[in-house]
Amino acid sequence: MTSVAILGAGAVGVACAGPLLQLGLASRLTLYDRDRDKARGEALDFHHAAPLLPECTVAGDSMDSIRAADIAVLTAGVHTQPGQTRLDTLDHNLAVAVDVADALEEALPRVVIVVSSPVDVLAEYLTRRWESRPVHVFGTGTSLDSWRLRELLAVELGVHPGNVHAWVIGEHGDSAVFPFESARVGPFSLAEFGRLSGRPLAAERLAEIEQRVRRAAYEVRALKGSTTHAIGLATAELIRHVVRDAGRLEPVSVRVRDRVCASLPAPIGADGAGAPLMPGLGDRERRAWEESLAVLREANQRIAI
Q1: Fold of 3-139
Q2: Is the pTM of this model over 0.70?
Q3: Catalytic residue among 165, 172, 229, 241, which?
Q4: First CA to last CA across the chain, in angstroms?
Q5: Annotated catalytic, 165?
Q6: Per CATH, is 143-300 categorized as 3.90.110.10?
Q7: How do strand 71-74 and strand 3-7 relate by DSSP bridges?
Q8: Cβ contact 77:101 at 8 Å
């Protein structure tokens, strides 16, 4: 079975642990935090539900006591505050990522999944740091954005979300790109399906859906302080692909250009994310893609490697 380490026992880390345990994806799960008592308390809380869950050893410990695991999930760091973008957390969360990477150095996992913001920059930092080591890094990237998009399109078109193949690519942030031209409902383009079903989506309506996806995390944060449940479920789904469902394509943050990580569809398997695949883009979408990479290149200048 698989051992998983969650690096950061805050709200997001705990939100990742719950579905991971319920799905039976790990034989051992360890939560690590700078506050050892918090990590142990969260682990004990899950342990008390052991009769209700698939068999798994759950433990908690401090960041300076990390043991080797198959998969490590980086959730440590701060959330955005009102008026901030994800990139505004860069300085603080990059420093946290450096500390966590130092702690992991003698116990490198096979796969590291970055959840903390800004996910693309932190994924790039860890990719640079460990590119000569046997560890595979990818970030959750725009996977959750894409699931949000598919749900909204499914509601508009009156179909099951599983029939919608639509992607958000680029930065997991304000410069994300929505390539509607490559979106499909079953074998049909959005325009074809709209014509055949009598549910056409005008450009204005697609723009509204795009903005709803862009604002989704900010809306949740305004209402409850931070996003936790959806990203926890999304991360568990990615771990499921690593552990069980090799070959599933998801948009995750990986190297897409020299020294830049961003989201593109990539096959997920036992060794993390495979080579990314570029969907067909129109001229406007191609410009948006290049602009998104430019945003990330500028942010990556803060990485001291």
Answers
A1: Rossmann fold (3.40.50)
A2: yes
A3: 172
A4: 35
A5: no
A6: yes
A7: parallel
A8: no
